[in-house]
Specification:
Elements (H helix, E strand, L loop, with lengths): L1 H17 L13 H10 L3 E8 L2 E7 L5 E6 L6 E5 L3
Antiparallel strand pairs: 1-2, 2-3, 3-4
């Protein structure tokens, strides 16, 4: 009974985990190669990077094709903020 319940919950949660966007505080890396790989693994369809306000801005699209701007601290590689996220 418990085994089947655990299996059911994991099957339900799997699609949600696959489409999760990165979160503030996640470490994605300080170089474009590492950051791109980490963002894509977190569910971000990456369209490019640019410098903005002392941060690295990554333009990402989620599974609904909604754009999010992910701001990365260039010294730590941590996500400082995300705009466009509900």
């Amino acid at each position: 009974m418990i085994r089947s319940m655990v299996l059911a919950v994991s099957l339900i949660a799997a699609p949600v985990a696959a489409f999760a966007m990165p979160a503030v505080g996640d470490i994605v890396g300080t170089n474009p190669t590492d950051a791109a790989a980490a963002l894509q693994k977190a569910g971000c369809n990456l369209k490019g990077f640019e410098a903005e306000g002392g941060m690295i801005e990554a333009k990402c699209y989620d599974e609904n094709n909604k754009m999010h701007e992910v701001y990365i601290n260039p010294k730590t590689g941590a996500i400082a903020s995300i705009s466009g996220k509900d």
